[in-house]
Amino acid sequence: MINPLLALPAIWIVLHHVPESRDPEARGPLDWSGAFVALLGLAGVCFGFIAAADFGWTDVKVAAPLALGLLLLAAFVWMEARSHSPMLPLDLFRSRTFSAVSLPTLLLYAALGGAFFFLPFALIQVQGYSAALAGAAFLPFTVIMALLSRWSGGLVDRFGARLPLVMGPIITALGFGLLAFSVGGGGYATFLASMTVLGLGMAISVAPLTTTVLNAVPAHQTGVASGINNTVSSLAGLLAVAIFGAVSLGIYDHGLDHSLRSASASPELKQAVQAARGQFTIAPAASGIEGIDRELARMIIKASLAESIRGITLLAAILPRCGGEWGTPAALSQRADRIATKNSAAMKI
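^ thats the sequence. predicted structure below, dont judge the formating
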């Protein structure tokens, strides 16, 4: 679905303020066959990951689309290597900077997509906030990203690529760490503070990441490079939700079992808690019992859910730091700095 409140102004801005550009080195027609194969491959992989939450990884409804999607993506790479006008020029990956910066992009957006998927459960199910308040908790992140994006886009020109690509993920990891503390029992103000720090870290990271990717390729291939970067970020969120979902359910079910073992529970209470396994909802599982058992069931389920989301948020805190450490070594950053400086000087001329 497309939000017309955002799409229509964006279309108007593009038509009136974005100049037309063409690739003077483009050869041949558009790569329709490559686009079609890539579309089918990505659709199969995405469907498989989404369906895995309902049917499990071994079910044919999951395994078949995943296998077909991966085969089609392999065929896509084979086709692109032999195409005279490929949609995805494989020579882009000869740039060490371009290839290396894809790693922090993947990890950063995986952490963001995975944590943001589970955060509403923490706000509504665990903390008991309304849907409106849960949505409002994301406002600091959105506002900071919108206000600082233009400023952060110039950080590469001012300081080089290395500093923002190291400091941004560190601040982002700190924001996720604060979110984990908030899930564990902090108030609404701690959620807002966490989202503020997280927004600052992402604002410092995202624009320099994109700038470094675009500066790492020839000018006529910046559109393709940007498309690859956006695809990596989108797939990262999808993969994170699937993987984080499996991890979170494991932590959640383990928490339920541990609570039942450590408490003298009645048969009704055990049945209600066991019914909550594999589900991130509190009310339905506890609705079949009354009195103190109902309150105990809600407490056990809520505590296990909080522990699960806290574990996921801590995992999300690790990923950006790994990306900043592994994806931007000094040699690559220095090379990106030189390219950025060269391109900036050329633009000024």
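The radius of gyration is 23 Å.
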